[in-house]
Amino acid sequence: MERYHPSEVYELFVRHMNTPRVAVDSGVCATATLVQVHSARKHGVLLDTVAALSDHGVCVRKGYISSDDGRWFMDVFHVTDAAGRKVADADALLARLESSLLSAEALPPSPARVGCAAAAAATALTLLELVGADRPGLLSEVFAVLHDLRCGIVDARAWTHGGRVAALVFVRDEETGAPIDDAARVRRVESRLRHILRGGARGARTTLLADAAAVNMDRRLHQLLNEDGEAESRAEAEPPTTTSVAVQDWGERGYSVVTVSCRDSPKLLFDVVCTLTDLDYVVYHGTFDTDGDHAQQEFYIRRLDGRPISSAAERRRVIQCLQAAIERRASEGVRLELRITDRRGLLAYVTRVFRENSLSVTHAEITTRGEMAMNVFHVTDVAGRPADPKTIDEVIQRIGTESLRVDEERWPRLCSTEGDAGRGGGSAGLFSLGSLVKKNLFNLGLIRSCS
Questions:
Q1: Contacts of 355 (CB under 8 A, 6+ apart)
Q2: d(Cα 139, Cα 295) in Å, to the nearest integer?
Q3: What are phi and psi of 150, to 5 degrees?
Q4: Which of 389, 291, 308 is nearest to 299 (CA)?
Q5: What is the Cα–Cα distance from 31 to 417, expressed in whole angstroms?
Q6: Which class for 93: exposed (0-12), middle (13-18), buried (19 or more C-beta within 10 A)?
Q7: Would you say the pTM of this structure is higher than 0.85?
Q8: What is the pLDDT of residues 340-398, one digit of tens each?
Q9: Would you call the peptide bond into 239 cis, given omega within 30 degrees of 0 as the criterion?
């Protein structure tokens, strides 16, 4: 019988206890697939869980978060697919969650992992992080400069909100397909982009990545806009929003209670949890629910040092950052989908056509898979108003009717099953302090109920 040193036994025990345990069950609830995650408390684990659900394309209909004194937590999510049905590929969802939550250091080295690392290195890319003042035609100028500098765009994502723009662009050399790592060439690219963005040294930053998949693009875009001060400038410049966010104190338990009431969206839970995590808050308890296209969320939080929010300025910043994170996700304008064989200068050409027809890109998702480019653009006129249908038709005719098409906006009804009728109209107000959490934590053991 093989013997182990006591320290090795203890290390194996700790590893086993700290390894998250995930269960995905489609037989418990009649209308949704149930996801349960049990894990030792670690900052960021909740965000990893929500990000994995978001990346898998499921909609979180309702859920609960509960922990003891901070050492252990349990999350329960009721999820559906985009059409409001149970998740068909429950095994794939389980595999994604387990892969996302299992830390790399908890896994022993293996040839498979070494091979993955070698493959990632072989497909290394250069990441450009761009931040600046938004204006009509800006993305067209950015893509034109990159084409002129022989930078092939592999993937990209751009958001505009509050008069600011943030973008992540993964590039490689157009000729060789290798990452752009020559220092002189990197400085030239950054200098040209900073001139366009008018953002100084913060306008463009370059990073060489061994594994582009390791970057959560949505999270990084939130971080870039928050670092840019977009949330504060937006709060000063824009009228009151329809997104209700409040922060209250529960002094006897040492919590700050964040409540959110707003229109539902596909990644709403991710946006809220991501913002709280990046502001260095820990969610100890929480609940979230949807009714038609309306969402209600409530979270009991503390700072990383264990203390609640302690000042009016801190409370105001949390509210502003959450409102901005929720609203910058909203994609304004007509959604255009482009599926075409990739070629050099494709994005520079397409966005130039938009600009020449007085269309402004508010959101963009650029994806290249093999020889195919699969891109999504949301466009308005240059004043931010809905684009003229005749203009859209002219753009489609010019780019190609078989390649570019208008896609009906898939939200807000994607994750809705009953619409607004059940709410009787009007906006739902913020919940009373602890109303949802206290009720749902009391019933947390009755997870077979979907009512």
A1: 136, 137, 140
A2: 33
A3: 60, 40
A4: 308
A5: 10
A6: buried
A7: no
A8: 999 999 999 999 999 999 999 999 999 999 999 999 999 999 998 999 999 999 999 99
A9: no
